[in-house]
Amino acid sequence: MKIALVHDYLNEFGGAERVLLALSEIWPKAPIYTAFYKKGSAAWERFKDKDVRVSWVDYIPGFAGKLHSPLRFLTPWIWNSFDFSEYDLVLGSASWYVTKGFKKKGKKTVEICYCHTPPRWLYGYPTSIEWQKYWPVRIYAKVVGYFMRQYDFRAAQRVNWFIANSQNTAKRIEKFYRREAEVIYPPVELPKVGQVKREDYYLVASRIVGGKGLELAVRVADRLNLKLKIAGEPAGYRQEQKRLESLSGGRVEFLGQVDDKELARLYAGAKAFLALASDEDFGMTPVEAMLMGTPVVAYRGGGYLESVVEGKTGVFFEKQTVKSLGKAIERLRKMKMKREDCVRQAKKFSKERFKREIKEFVFQKAKKA
């Protein structure tokens, strides 16, 4: 089969980009189509040896940096500028930039969408960048959102088959698109780092943005006098880190972007990993922590419910408050969780398993097309 891979855009390197990287390892000759590709970014380093093909907006000065968010209404024109008629299969990796329902002349091209989530901003879920905090922007968002929801629904109907990254996301796909989705959990893999001594710190690994519970982590560290490390680079409008630093009281260490080997060491050395988003689509970072033998303190909601095993690989807290999170941390301190139980649970989400399930799904559907 002649296959094309499609992804929202290449700027940061997070869970969605790890999925794309795994897909490109399965089909190394498949070109990657994307809205734009920011040179020098974290994603640039991971994909610079790939055949990446960008849309016309990549040539607009400043679009990759700041304009892609306010000009999100351009997404129909971005994706319609590509013609995938020459391909047998188009496999999209879709999140908030729509990234589905592509132009395909005739009926021979099959489209499969690996959906990380329907666009959160369109359906009332918390987003990493609170871009609607000013009233003129809220009015603009309501107008743009009305038309974009219609476009998003129509684009979803042009997809032949959906894959969801979690049961949580599959329910959203059914709710908003009236479509069924097969669940194939994303791939989790980290380099081996040998034996790492457990230290007296808690860890968060996340881009420095809103919607990830970082403020809660900072406040609980200050209240309980905990040592907290946050691994990840600022994203979006890049104001969040300064605000968090002002709240931290000097107890939080902001590490910036770290490579996978250093990230694995950080996971392995932490007392626990804090997974704090209020409605995470799936959440690869707590699984990465468990892979390194580290238990998780997670909010009871979203995709965390599909990976963390209460009392065995972590504990849940009920409310997005310092008090609720603090009680969960205290409970965890009194429990003895085995590294091997955490590792065993994480291996259910391995890259080998992901590649096998994706290939089986693709070839099974291709036969039916």
Key descriptive features of the protein:
2 domains, 369 residues, 15% strand, Rossmann fold, 6-stranded parallel beta sheet, 7-stranded parallel beta sheet, alpha/beta
- The CATH topology label of the largest domain is Rossmann fold
Helix content: 25-40%
* CATH C-level label of the largest domain: Alpha Beta
DSSP, total strands: 13
CATH architectural type of the largest domain: 3-Layer(aba) Sandwich
Structural class: alpha/beta
Unreliable residue runs: none
- Could you say which overall geometry the principal axes of the C-alpha atoms support? globular
Number of H/I helices:
13
In N-to-C order, the SSE pattern is EHEHEHHEEHEHEEHEHEHEHEEHHH
Domain unit count? 2
Could you describe the 3D structure shown?
- The chain has about 375 residues and is of the alpha/beta class.
- It has two domains: about 5-185 and about 350-369, Rossmann fold (3-Layer(aba) Sandwich); about 200-350, Rossmann fold (3-Layer(aba) Sandwich).
- About 35% of the residues lie in helices and about 15% in strands.
- It is built from 13 helices and 13 strands.
- The chain has helices spanning about 15-25, 40-45, 65, 75-80, 135-155, 165-175, 215-225, 240-245, 260-270, 285-290, 320-335, 340-345, 350-369, and strands at about 5, 30-35, 50-55, 90-95, 110-115, 160-165, 180-185, 200-205, 230, 250-255, 270-275, 295-300, 315.
- The strands form two sheets. A seven-stranded parallel beta sheet has the order 3-2-1-4-5-6-7, sandwiched between helices.
- α7 (about 215-225) crosses α11 and α10 packs across α12.
- The longest helix has 23 residues, at about 135-155.
- The protein is globular and about 60 Å long.
- It starts with a strand and ends with a helix.
- The mean pLDDT is about 90.
